[in-house]
Amino acid sequence: MAGETDPVRLIVGLGNPGTRYEQTRHNAGFWFVDALVRAYGGRFAAARKFDGEAAPISLDGREVRVFKPGAFMNRSGGPVRAILNFYKLPLSSMLIAHDEIDLPPGVARLKRGGGHGGHNGLRDVFAYLSTDCWRLRLGVGHPGHSDLVVDYVLSKPANSEQEAIMHAADRALTTMPMLAAGQFEQAMHQLHTPSPAS
Question: Given 38, 43, 93, 124, which residue has the most CB atoms within 10 angstroms?
């Protein structure tokens, strides 16, 4: 695959802005990048030229930019394209963290490319760019019927589900230095191998 060895230099979390949505399942991507920036001593600041918030962090001495689009989920593509273009980063050096209804809470998976699966944030990003990027899929579970998905992802998970989602996010955090070093197989092996407690 073209650009397969490009290390990750941009990590984007998908979510909806505003207090109304901050605790909803659809904002799991925001939860992850918030935890990432806290873990590495960074701080988000307004990035108006990209319509969002950005934070530089150092992952084992490698500078990585973390970004939260300021537009609503289904308009994420424009801000994401803007920051990629400004820093002249290849698409293959980007990781998108997002909620994933096809995985249960407590499971996180790394994936390269693939379809949007009905996820409106991914749909818009892929419409502006392409699918040739890394994805961190944070399981939030499925409501059981497709007609229930919108209300489900825009609602707050139970405390036990929230804890499981964040536990998976914490495991994913440990793989970020590997991705920044281009060690993709190692990162996937570490994240996808069940921990002794799971």
Answer: 124
| Catalytic residue from among 26, 98, 142, 145 | 26
Q: Where are the alpha helices (DSSP H) in the chain?
A: 28-39, 77-86, 120-128, 149-153, 159-173, 176-180, 184-192
pLDDT digits (tens, 9 = 90+) for 46-61: 999 999 999 999 999 9
Q: At what angle do helices 120-128 and 77-86 cross, to 10 degrees?
A: 40
* pTM assigned to the model: 0.93
Q: What is the secondary structure of 117-170 as a DSSP string?
A: TT-HHHHHHHHHS-S-SEEEEEE----SSGGGHHHHHTSPPPHHHHHHHHHHHH
CB 28 within 8 A of CB 107: no
Are the C-beta atoms of 176 and 59 separated by less than 8 Å? yes
142 a catalytic residue: no
The per-type count for the chain, helices as H runs and strands as E runs, is 7, 7
